[in-house]
Amino acid sequence: MFKSIPMAVRILIALTLPALLVPLFPQVLYPVFVMKVLCYGLFALAFNVLIGFTGLVSFGHAAFFGWAGYVTGILMVRLGPGMPVELAIAAGVLVAVALGWIIGTLAIRRTGIYFAMITLALSQIAYFLAVQLPWTGGEDGLQGIPRGRLLGLIDLSVDNHMYYFTLLIFVLGFLATYRIVHSPFGQVLKALRDNEPRATSLGYDTDRCKLYAFLLSAALAGLAGSTKALVLQLNSLNDVMLSTSTEVLLMTLLGGLGTGWGPVLGAAIVVSIQDHLAALGGIVTVIMGFTFIICVSFFRKGVVGEWQAFLARRQAASQKGEHG
């Protein structure tokens, strides 16, 4: 019976069950830190849908992540704790999807480095707007964002309540990405990644498929950004900067492109390095750079990808020994 459960769901259960116990031992794992990992893990999963399964390298995902957080934060600040938190998050996701449609429509007509540069240029416009528009807080950002009440009943200002809400969002996001990449649509995306001319010859509208993938990725990135703004009660310019787009790229590469939960592991590693070595200041950036170099030089498939490749080689050797 257990073997009938998909591997990704089994892994998710294995990750979720210990996470449910985190509030019981805050001296070991601080719930706010775990919530931050979950948010960035969802962000990396969203990015992986695009780069890992569609083969599109975007440098514009910080726009979706950051602007969703701005919209959610502005609604919660301006309208107060009485603002339904569900609507604030939904508004952030809708704005991320709208930005995704604008950027995606312009970018998917190009491939390779041209696609990446278009997403970079448009995300810089989004960053410029965040700097100039007065209601974003400019360089100060949005601070003291109220968490509100879930369904008007559950006070999310309590860390434990917010923790379980964040965990629920992460689980739903993980299952959504799993369903996307294992659906017929996900198989089409993999075909585009591996051989786009062949997919075109089979009759698929490749531009439309890439746009849909871009929108789905933007929506999940927006969900992660909105949740992060509530968790940390802060949204800053750093969330819409190019560095955030490169960080999520590092998370995905470090964990493993095209793997189910590799991006989550990559996010946990990167966030842990940033948080635990924050006292070192600018040296953290150097450490992150060396981490990236080591990853692309020796672990090109990422931590999870290399582990899966090792298991595959081991299984192949075992089968060969049995037949030999």
Give an overview of the whole structure:
This protein is mostly helical and 324 residues long. It has 13 helices and four strands. The strands form two sheets. A two-stranded antiparallel ribbon has the order 1-4. The longest helix has 27 residues, at 206-232. The model has no long low-confidence stretch (mean pLDDT 81).
Keywords:
two-stranded antiparallel sheet, mainly alpha, 13 helices, single chain, 324 residues, globular
Write the layout of secondary structure elements.
Blueprint: H1 7-20, H2 31-51, H3 61-79, H4 85-107, H5 112-132, E1 142-143, E2 149-150, E3 154-155, H6 159-181, H7 184-194, H8 196-201, H9 206-232, E4 234-235, H10 242-255, H11 262-276, H12 283-298, H13 302-323
Helix pairs in contact: 1-6, 2-6, 2-9, 2-10, 2-11, 3-4, 3-5, 3-9, 4-5, 4-9, 6-9, 7-9, 10-11, 10-13
Helical content band? over 70%
DSSP, total strands: 4
Average pLDDT, rounded to a whole number, is 81
Strand content: under 5%
State the strand order across the main sheet: 1-4
| Content-based structural category | mainly alpha
Distance from N terminus to C terminus (CA atoms, Å) equals 32 Å
**What is the CA-based Rg, rounded?**
20 Å
How can the largest sheet be summarized? 2 strands, antiparallel
The residue ranges in which pLDDT falls below 50 over 5 or more consecutive positions are none
**Helix run count:** 13
Overall outline: globular
H/E topology pattern: HHHHHEEEHHHHEHHHH
